[in-house]
Amino acid sequence: MKQNTFRPLLPVIMLFIVLNGFFLSGKTLLEKWSVDVPVLVFGNIIIFLVMFFSFWLGRQGLQSGNVQAFIRSIYSSFIVKFFVIVIAAFVYIMITKKNVNKPALITCMCLYIVYTFFEVSILMKLARQKKNE
């Protein structure tokens, strides 16, 4: 694991850039579908940053030789992701009250699933590489 710590995340970084580009350039199309674009953009940013931190925690756990440290890092990353996303959703819901944009929230939930899939896939690949070294 001598390569750059975040180099495996390049596809995820590209996905983040493409999605935000689409959200900003396709604003009129998304508004036709009643999707609140600022919610999507900020949701994507929050989910990406949380995933980035979660990946870093998982990578730190992989680099330690201790299995318990790896398990702790995975649990810690889950707890951090859960609370940050729940707090962000709660703040959004409390600010907008009855004007909550459900399509944007559902899209953000789907983005969370996609980013989590990428994070877990990359960490599993790195774990296999470490095992083979």
Strands, helices and their partners?
Blueprint: H1 10-25, H2 27-32, H3 37-63, H4 67-96, H5 102-132
Features:
133 residues, mainly alpha, 5 helices, elongated
By secondary-structure content and strand pairing, the structural class works out as mainly alpha
Helix content: over 70%
Please give the radius of gyration in angstroms: 17 Å
Q: What's the overall average pLDDT, rounded?
A: 90
What is the count of β-strands?
A: 0
Cα(first) to Cα(last) distance is 9 Å
- Report on the biggest sheet: none
H/E element order:
HHHHH
Strand content: under 5%
Describe this structure in words.
The protein is mainly α and 133 residues long. It has a domain at 38-124. Helices cover 83% and strands 0% of the residues. The protein has 5 helices and no strands. It has helices spanning 10-25, 27-32, 37-63, 67-96, 102-132. Helix 1 packs antiparallel against helix 3 (37-63), helix 3 runs antiparallel to helix 4 and helix 3 runs parallel beside helix 5 (102-132). It is elongated and about 50 Å long.
Write a concise synopsis of the structure shown.
With 133 residues, this protein is mostly helical. The protein has helices at 10-25, 27-32, 37-63, 67-96, 102-132. The mean pLDDT is 90.
